[in-house]
Amino acid sequence: MTVIYNDTCPICAREVKGYKSITRKHDLAIRYHGLSEGEMDAYGLTNREAARRFHVVKDGVLYDGVDAFALVWDEMPRFRWLARLVRVPGIHRIAELLYDHVAAPALFAMHRRRAAKGQAHRQG
């Protein structure tokens, strides 16, 4: 499984830093590919798409948003409960709405502002 994330976003980078720590601690089969590393076309994404949402490639299939987070959480011992929770139909819909219409747009807007100022650099 490969996590594709915006490593130029301080909030995103901090979140993924925690995932990386768990990945190392438990020797999980998860790779991480940050936006600053380029080559997003290898995943069928543009840089804009990769900056806009959290993505995971698992078994050759590209997932994004809440479904991508749930796949990562499935692999992490202390997060499995959260993966199960966000898959409950009503909760899944609410989580999608919050991610799609609040979190992702807000983070992407911050990314665009940092990029416009020349401040969109890899974090951590």
List keywords for this structure.
about 120 residues, alpha+beta, four-stranded mixed β-sheet, about 15% strand, globular
User: Overall pLDDT, averaged?
Assistant: 93
Largest sheet: 4 strands, mixed
Question: Into which percentage range does the β-strand content fall?
Answer: 5-15%
Count of discrete alpha- or pi-helical segments spanning 4 or more residues: 5
Which descriptor suits the 3D outline?
Answer: globular
Question: What is the rounded distance between the termini?
Answer: 22 Å
- Helix fraction? 55-70%
Explain what the structure shows:
The chain has a 4-stranded mixed β-sheet, with helices on one face. It has one domain (2-116). The protein has helices at 10-26, 47-52, 65-75, 80-87, 89-116, and strands at 2-5, 31-34, 55-58, 61-64. It is globular, with a radius of gyration of 14 Å. It is 56% helix and 13% strand. The model has no long low-confidence stretch (mean pLDDT 93).
Give the helix/strand layout.
Blueprint: E1 2-5, H1 10-26, E2 31-34, H2 47-52, E3 55-58, E4 61-64, H3 65-75, H4 80-87, H5 89-116
Helix pairs in contact: 3-4
Please sum up the structure shown.
InterPro entries: DCC1-like. The chain contains 5 helices and 4 strands, in the order E-H-E-H-E-E-H-H-H.
